[in-house]
Each structure stands twice: as structure tokens, then as C-alpha cells.
Amino acid sequence: MASQYYQDMQESFKNNNKSREFPAHTAKVHSVAWSCDGRRLASGSFDKTASVFILEKDRLVKENNYRGHSDSVDQLCWHPTNPDLFVTASGDKTIRIWDVRTTKCIATVNTKGENINICWSPDGQTIAVGNKDDVVTFIDAKTHRSRAEEQFKFEVNEISWSNDNDMFFLTNGNGCINILSYPELKPIQSINAHPSNCICIKFDPTGKYFATGSADALVSLWDVEELVCVRCFSRLDWPVRTLSFSHDGKMLASASEDHFIDIAEVETGEKLWEVQCDSPTFTVAWHPKRPLLAYACDDKEGKYDSNREAGTVKLFGLPNDS
């Protein structure tokens, strides 16, 4: 029997299954993220900029474009509780903290390598950034100074704190999840999660689960307390690039080079919906308060129609009559 939640969400998506795209950049978009209050969406791009939109009912209105990086903006994230601050990681060996109230860069922090991963600790005090040389630097969010630096002997893919802020997780190229205590950064456990490269990791807002996506096209759901795999989702055929839990922790979106985004019910693993795409998806992010999914896809190969810009961001979950 399908759960009531499943039936309700299917009904909701039947009436709200419109996707709309919004011009954001002049080149492909690597990363999208919502502010904690859900009022703004930020995007980072190969065009070396970040863009910020305001969500107005059922559309995104571009508020600003943030320039300053001299290389691609590979990842960005917002402060966990302050909806005005976000941070960008770039291949130019810096991270930059931006304030949407002044639209200015409030700090540029020089790092040792080309940055590809970034996350903000749940308590807001620390920013962790990972580079192409598998070094993770922990930066004080107030003083903008480095607190600690760890060189890893394996390929570091994505990084994240646990919701309680007391553990730090890394996914790696050998298919493992490495767990360190925080702030001590002592190894607690290494979990053999996947037979191949473990690419991405996300924690659900309730703190009950985390999910990993890997090159074997599987998404695994893990119990945070027990550190055991609860179930796998296997509807994608290509390496899983990006994951996002819905605001209530009950849906998990996953995407890859497949031309659809899978939306699963977390508790059963059942497919709730799929969002059709024209090309591979780089990044997905559920809105923090409602069933609205932001995402960005690769540019359609060789298919340039004059009215379609390269670097768009998209919203799924809009009313059919909007």
C-alpha cells in the first residue's frame, strides 16, 4: 500500500509538474543552493560568477550577479541560519564570502589549491573547503583565518558536517565514507559504501539519515546513529552527481547524466516522480520550506537555439497553470 504521503505528493506533482527555466549565466551552472529562509536562490557558474535570485511566488527574479573570482565557481553554499550570507569556492585558489544586503564580497580567503568543494558548519562558525589536491581547510567564518588543514591520502569528493556539528564526513574515490570527529578531526570510522567512486553526500534535515551517491549509479541511504545502510535506490544508470533531501526529509532527489531527475520517497525507496531533462544534471536543491526543486543541467550538446541561454537555472514543482 502506498503511504498517504506518497499519494498526497503524487497528487501535488500532478497539479504542479511544470518546470521553468531562468537565465542566470553565460556558461554552464555548476551549483545551486537556497538560502535558509528560502527567499533566495544562488547559482555558481563556469563563467566565474555567482548569481542570486529572489523567489517571487512561482518565479525567480534575478537580484544580482557577483563578480570577483578569476576562475570557475564550482560550488557555493549559504550560511545555515543567516539568509544574507553565502560563500563560493573557485578554481582561482580563493573562497569568497558575499553579503546580499550590500551585494559586496565581505571576505576573500586565499587557499592553497583549486577549490572544488565547500560547506558551512551547522553552527555557522566554520567553513570547510576542499581542493583538487585532496586538502580540506577549515576556515573561521568570523576571522576568515584557517583553523586547521588536513591532507588526505585519497581522492576527496564531497564533504559535510553531521547536523549535530560533531562529526565531519568525506566521500572518497575508493567508494568509502570517512568519518572524523569534530573539532578534533580524529578518524572515527571508514565505511565501505560503494564498490566504486563515492561522489556526493547529503544529510536529511531531520538528522535521521544521510545519503550518498556513487559512480555505480546507486544512491545509498544511511542511518546516522547506527551508520548502517538502510536501503538503496537504483533507478539511475549513470554516476550520481548530486542529491537533495526535501524540507521534511521525506523525499530524495538524485541526478546524473540520465535525462531525468529521480524523486524517491525516502521511507520506502519508491519512485514518487521523475523530472524530465534534456541533458545531464549537475546540481539539485529542494526549497527549504516547500516541494519546489531548483536544478541546473549541462548545455544541450550542439543544440543551440537562439532563444535559449547557456547557463540557466530551472525550477520544478510549479503549478501547471502558472
Describe this structure in words.
The chain is mainly beta. Helix content is 4%, strand content 53%. The protein contains one helix and 28 strands. The chain has one helix spanning 4-15; strands at residues 18-25, 29-34, 40-45, 50-56, 59-66, 73-78, 85-90, 94-99, 104-110, 115-120, 126-131, 135-140, 146-151, 156-161, 167-172, 176-181, 187-192, 198-203, 209-214, 219-223, 228-233, 242-245, 251-255, 260-265, 271-276, 281-286, 293-297, 311-318. The strands form seven sheets. Strands 1-28-27-26 form a four-stranded antiparallel sheet, with no helix packed on it. The protein has a four-stranded antiparallel sheet with strand order 2-3-4-5, with no helix packed on it. Strand 7 and strand 8 form a beta hairpin. The longest helix is centred in the N-terminal third of the chain and has 12 residues, at 4-15. The chain is globular. It starts with a helix and ends with a strand. Its main location: nucleus. Belongs to the THOC3 family. It comes from Crenichthys baileyi (White River springfish). It holds the Pfam family Beta-prop_THOC3. Keywords: Acetylation, mRNA processing, mRNA splicing, mRNA transport, Nucleus, Repeat, RNA-binding, Transport, WD repeat.
Blueprint of the fold:
Blueprint lengths: L3 H12 L2 E8 L3 E6 L5 E6 L4 E7 L2 E8 L6 E6 L6 E6 L3 E6 L4 E7 L4 E6 L5 E6 L3 E6 L5 E6 L4 E6 L5 E6 L3 E6 L5 E6 L5 E6 L5 E6 L4 E5 L4 E6 L8 E4 L5 E5 L4 E6 L5 E6 L4 E6 L6 E5 L13 E8 L4
Antiparallel strand pairs: 1-28, 2-3, 3-4, 4-5, 6-7, 7-8, 8-9, 10-11, 11-12, 12-13, 14-15, 15-16, 16-17, 18-19, 19-20, 20-21, 22-23, 23-24, 24-25, 26-27, 27-28
GO biological process, one term: mRNA export from nucleus
Keywords: Acetylation, mRNA processing, mRNA splicing, mRNA transport, Nucleus, Repeat, RNA-binding, Transport, WD repeat
Family: Belongs to the THOC3 family.
